[in-house]
Amino acid sequence: MSDSLEQFRKKIEEKSLKIGVIGLGYVGLPLAVELAGKGFTTLGIDLDKTKVGNIKKGKNYIGDVDDEEFKRVFESGKLTAEDNYNAIGSCDAIFI
Length: 96
Fold this sequence. Notes:
By secondary structure, the protein is of the alpha/beta class. It is 42% helix and 18% strand. Strand 1 (18-22), helix 2 (28-37) and strand 2 form a beta-alpha-beta unit. The chain is globular and about 40 Å long.
C-alpha cells in the first residue's frame, strides 16, 4: 500500500481528514452536517452568498436537517462555509 493511501486512511481513523462539500442545497448541506457530526472538519462551498451567510450565522435553512444537530456542529467549529473556492486546496477529500 502506498504511503499516501496509508496517510489518508490514518486521517480518516483519527478524524483529522478535512472534507469539502461543493453545493449546500438539499443534498449538500445534509451531507456536510452529517460529516461534521461524525467529527470531520467540513467546509461547505456554495456560490450563493445567502446560503453561506446563513451558515456563518448558525442558521439552518434545510428542513431535512435537524436544527439541534446543525447547531451542535456549527458551534463545535466542525462546519464552516465559504462562497468561493479559495480554500478548496486545504481539503483532503471533496464531495461534488
